[in-house]
Amino acid sequence: MADKRDYYDVLGVSKSATDAEIKSAFRKKAKEFHPDLNKDNPDAAEKFKEAQEAYSVLSDENKRKMYDQYGHAGVGAGGAGGAGFGGFSDFSGSGFDFGDIFESIFGGAGGTGFGGFSDFGGRRSSGARASRGSDILMRMDLSFEEAVYGCEKKFDIDVVEDCDECHGHGGFDREECSTCHGRGTITSQQQTILGAFMSTTTCPDCHGNGHTYKRKCSECGGKGKVKVNKKLTINISEGINTGDRQRVSGKGNPGTNGGSNGDLYIEFVVAEHDYFVREDDDIYLEVPITLTEAILGCKKEIPTLYGNVKLNIAAGTNSGDRERIRGKGVNNKYRRHKGDMYVVFKVYTPKKLSREQKSLIEKLNKTDLSSDEIKKFDKFTKKNA
């Protein structure tokens, strides 16, 4: 017993280490020295055995007290596993669970190598678990008006549902699986230099369900699911915009082992309008006005999303000037927000004039129509000459 190393030194922790620190230290040592992960290291198996022996003592409150008081003599010549270290099954009644640690290293039941460590604490694998199906994303085109005002859309889609013939079971006359005897898993034993190791995997015949059927359903081929084309109807709320999504519950891909279907997500693509330009929930409208309307001002009928309104255009309006009309933007019920409308004026200069119009313009040109901005620019031009 004199040649045995101190258990605290083996795990690299202090004598005041907490249970969590001891467990974490052993997990690191297990990864570092496990024979399956270190086949090129001839000392790995012995160091792994040493680390496990240390952990089996220090993780047990009573054994740790005995060890702290009497050393190795207080916990017996062979440590927690006995002198033979015959296999992990020897630890199943020791009050600590190696399975929890090895699952984090090898990926739990069904993993490679030592995937069945959950059996060492007396626990059994639950077999194949129910798994929810994945979601589906599809895109839907909307006109500008459909997105702004909301609408009802009907469309065809292929969905996977329970088979009506077998009610989703995949067969008839259910019976216990003869391979795994209803457990859903099979356990095999492997001999290694450390002793006998048990490995648990999903039953290949019942796929973890624990049962089979005497007669396979011909309608679904034993899958329990069939693909059907369905016409769906959805209500699209006011204010939907490009990139927004709507969820249709349960119309995604099918789950496995009794798991629920995923969901269908519809992503919208909204077409542009000939005149209205949308930015978030605000609407911009470019309104053309004549030269005289810009100079003298006027009243003009302006189209909005909710009908026409009369707008007073101020005298001296320039191209690019804009006026806000509150509350005439998109009524976005999707985000509970209502935008505004912005009228952007564009002054159009006529390219063709009648003789009378040209005469009037020439008379007007003889008057001083210069603005302060024009006068400032003229001064800059003369100074720059």
Distance between the termini: 106 Å
The CATH topology of the largest domain is given as: Chaperone, DNAj Protein, Chain A
Q: Structural class, from helix and strand content?
A: alpha+beta
Q: Judging by the overall fold, what is the CATH architecture of the largest domain?
A: Ribbon
Q: Helicity level, as a percent range?
A: 10-25%
Please work out how many helical segments DSSP would assign: 9
What is the overall pLDDT average? 80
Query: How much is the radius of gyration in Å?
Result: 40 Å
State the total count of DSSP E strands.
17
The helix-strand sequence is: HHHHHEHEEEEEEEEEEHEEEEEEHH
**General form:** elongated
Approximate strand percentage: 25-35%
CATH class of the largest domain: Mainly Beta
Largest sheet: 4 strands, mixed
Cross-sheet strand order for the largest sheet = 10-11-17-14
Number of domains: 3
Assign the CATH superfamily of the largest domain: Heat shock protein DnaJ, cysteine-rich domain
Describe the structure.
- There is one protein chain.
- This protein has 385 residues and is of the alpha+beta class.
- It folds into three domains: 7-121, DnaJ domain (Helix Hairpins, Orthogonal Bundle); 136-270, Heat shock protein DnaJ, cysteine-rich domain (Chaperone, DNAj Protein, Chain A, Ribbon); 276-384, Urease metallochaperone UreE, N-terminal domain (HSP40/DNAj peptide-binding domain), CATH 2.60.260.
- Helices cover 23% and strands 29% of the residues.
- The protein is built from nine helices and 17 strands.
- The protein has a four-stranded mixed sheet with strand order 10-11-17-14.
- Strand 15 (331-332) and strand 16 form a beta hairpin.
- The N and C termini lie far apart (106 Å).
- The model is unreliable at 77-99 and 106-127 (pLDDT under 50).
